[in-house]
Amino acid sequence: MMKLFGCIFFFSLTLASISFSRQTLAPDSSSIARDDPVRRPLNTPLKPIRWYTMFERMPYDWGRWADLSFRKDKVEAWAWITALSTALVLTDDDTYTPSDRFYRSSGSASYWSDFFAGFGDGRTQFALAGAYAVYGIVFDDDRAFRTGSQIVEAVLASGAVVQLLKHVTGRESPFVRSTPTGRWSLFPNQIDYSRYVPYFDAFPSGHVCTSLATVIVIAENYPEVTWVRPLGYVLTGLLGVGMVNNGIHWYSDYPLGLFLGYYFGMIAAHPEGFEFSDGTGTTQAGFSLLPRLNRGGVGMSLLVSF
Question: Looking at the domain assignment, is residue 11 inside a domain?
């Protein structure tokens, strides 16, 4: 119930911010695109959104993601993701052990960890998508309807890739680990996978992937609502901490999940196509996701830059 209330509040706050922006700034979407140094929209006309568009576009999303991700200028980004994931794997036992201790220390710790972890289970994303879609239909708001459709598109397209990778890597979740940092069973027996899912489905994190993808879709469709990204990133970070606390994920499951979520969010939000640019003609993308340990407990430091 609290998550549903949170979705309604987030959606309502977005609409209120739009109304305020129109009264004060009234930005033009084309001028926003021209002034944005991060992306350059391509000159491809938008097609009308239908109820089936979200499913129709998924094969394109997969092809576009492969095209954007596996090219020469992304070698550095993949190197950073690999290095960061490896470094986090080496510290996973050191970060999960105090997280587990914190989770078991009190009812409040376990409640709030589970609460924030629940934001990535898909229900929150689909609830937000439904809210935007219903509003778009009732009030004839094309942008809201498009946002709802694109959220579902991003979640399903990225989720399919995440599931494929999970079924290939076969990593144990922390709460069922048989080794300090979880056993990896490459190409596990799929019957065993279906029977004992937590023993194989930790890497990468679909929770942070779909959470970030949803944030990106909303932020890209409502660029005048500037608080969407900061709040969305904070909630995604809390989600990540919660899932380590309750033993669903390791911190090393997150870098690749964030990478997938960001790109699929951008692809879904820009069916006309886009390119990343830092204003000089070069492309850049970076992630920093590091566990933090101190006397007060355990936490996570998250920086996403594009």
Answer: no
